[in-house]
Amino acid sequence: MAATPVGQHAHWSSRFAFILAAVGSAVGLGNLWRFPFMTGQNGGSAFVLIYIGCVILFAIPVLMAEIAIGRHAQQSAISSTRKMAQEAGKSAKWAIVGWVCTAGGFLILTTYSVIAGMVMAYSASGFLGGFSEPGGATMFYGDNGAKLIWHAVFMIITVMIVARGLKGGIEQVATFLMPVFFIVLIGLTIYSLASGNAAEAIAYLFTPDFSAVTGNTFVAALGQAFFSVSVASAIMITYGSYLSKDTNIGSSSVLIASADTMVALVAGLMIFPIVFMVGMDPAAGMGLIFTALPAVFADMPAGNIIGGAFFALAFIAAITSSISLLEGTVAFIEEHSDFSRPTAAVLLGFFAFMIGAGAVYSDAFAGEFVDWMSGSFLLPLGGLLVAVFAGWVIPKSLMRQELSHASNGLFGFFHFCVKFVVPPAIGIILLLGLDAKFNGGAIGAMVGLG
Ligand code: PHE
């Protein structure tokens, strides 16, 4: 299975299969783990509102652009952007758009698998009765050796699914697991709202309070929107390349992003009642779900089972995302080398595992740097490039042709956003992010966002 000639690669069996796989990619640890702690660290409801604004103005237009680019060129992200640029009579160097996105996606996978491994270990603890024992939540996650093993197990599962290909692997897993995910999510949320501190959680998430907004809030919300909707990371271009010409990209994009946002909000409604019930600080950071929740499960009736189920839910969410993260790079290697898909999947999975393993041994690296690099730098940069590409490099008529099912209104909104809204806004947000990271936020303070 050497280089895949254009037009001959696999396609989704149906629009429904594509939607489930894309929602599966979007809904992940970003919703269940990252969204709650980001909300907690960035002042609650104000962050939620800015986040929703970012999804509408930035993530949806970029998502539409990516799926359209992929479907038009029918290749991996790097080859698709190169091909489309050439078709438009522009430099092949525009493949840089695909390169930045592919690098961002691959980098996310490296530490994503570490966190997903932790989720698996916690799920096992729950089902085996660990949450009711003192310190039992981490009974399988004690030392770095254990962390590496779980990280390896998660990566191996990811590789095995991707190696089986689009229909036999990714599609099958998504169509089976996503319905299970939604049922468990709803069940757990009802339980949490009924038994936790629902009133405080709802007030925290939905009463607008802009006093805590800084430049960083925007950086965080934008990075989170891109991360959660799976844009700017090569995945949606790749998934778009498996799409048939008769699918409505506009409405599919709106559906994917809405489903993802709903799940994030519902996850907030599942997690914060419990956080407030035990009086935990919502700004506890990355460890929020790993410390707050087990503490509660310890005292709850059937807490072990509920806790095991919660982390199993997070595992389902994670696996349908990690396969997309690996697929983005595998599609490129498969296209450009003599490696078969399984070989490409194994090699890239191993490589990602090694970088993730490095992160296990250096908390600052894992927690801060890789997350910052992907969430606050590569994803915004990738999104900026995709928008410039779709708004300025590719002629409007070509984008319109690929988005032919979209209404004039939606297409107009899309094109205005990728042309005039996303590039300057993300440019500023990127600058504020770099300023906050390397310059102590001096510029942000100057413009009143200190
Ligand atoms: N969207 C996924 C999540 O929320 C993560 C992801 C990011 C997947 C980028 C693919 C691409 O967990």
Overall pLDDT level: 90
For the largest beta-sheet, the strand count, sense and barrel status come to: none
- CATH class label: Mainly Alpha
Bound molecules: phenylalanine
Could you estimate the helical fraction of the residues in percent?
over 70%
Written as H for each helix and E for each strand, in order along the chain, the element string is HHHHHHHHHHHHHHHHHH
- C-alpha end-to-end distance: 54 Å
Notes on the protein architecture:
- This protein has 450 residues and is an all-alpha fold.
- It has one domain (6-446): Orthogonal Bundle (Hydantoin permease).
- It has 18 helices and no strands.
- The termini are far apart.
- Residues 1-7 have low confidence and may be disordered.
- The site of phenylalanine has 16 residues, from helix 1, helix 2, helix 5, helix 9 and helix 13.
Give a brief description.
The protein has helices spanning 15-26, 29-41, 45-73, 77-87, 96-127, 144-163, 165-195, 198-206, 215-229, 235-241, 249-277, 288-299, 303-336, 341-360, 363-393, 396-402, 408-438, 442-446. The model is unreliable at 1-7 (pLDDT under 50). With 450 residues, it is mostly helical.
